[in-house]
Each structure stands twice: as structure tokens, then as C-alpha cells.
Amino acid sequence: MGIIWMLIVGGIIGWLAGLLTGRDVPGGIIGNIIAGFIGSWLGGLILGSWGPVVGGFAIIPAIIGSIILVLIVSFILRKMGHKKESWSSRKIN
Question: Residue 11 sits in which domain range?
Fold first, then answer.
């Protein structure tokens, strides 16, 4: 049950980071979970482990680290010329 709880909390943290920055995390739910896990690790390195802990994540450093990660990933994808194409803008031949 612990790993499921960590996946849920990691996904919520990644989703919150995307929501707060106004940018989508590539990969949908899996991308949110990955952003939550990596962002939590990054936030823990930068800020330490303080604040409330839920599902093994210190929430405040995790959200800040995830925001930093989402901003870095969106910057890199923008520089690489990655454009998000929506379903409605695709042309059918």
C-alpha cells in the first residue's frame, strides 16, 4: 500500500507544479508522477526535508522542486522546438 500512496502523492505534486506554473507536464499522469518524484528529490537536495510529510514526501520542498523541474523541462522543450499539437489542430488527409 505504501508504494501506491507514494505514486498518488507524487502524481498530485507533479500536477500541482504544472498547475502553478501554467505549463503541462509532458506524459500526462506518468509525467506528473515522474515530475513529482524527481522534483521531490530536487527539492530535498536544495531545501532539505522540512514541513509536513505525506507519502514519504516533504510537501513544501517537493512542490518547489517540482516547479523548478517543470520550468526547466518546459524551457528545454521550447528551445528544442517542441510544439504541443492538440487533437483539434491536426489535419486529416
Answer: 2-82
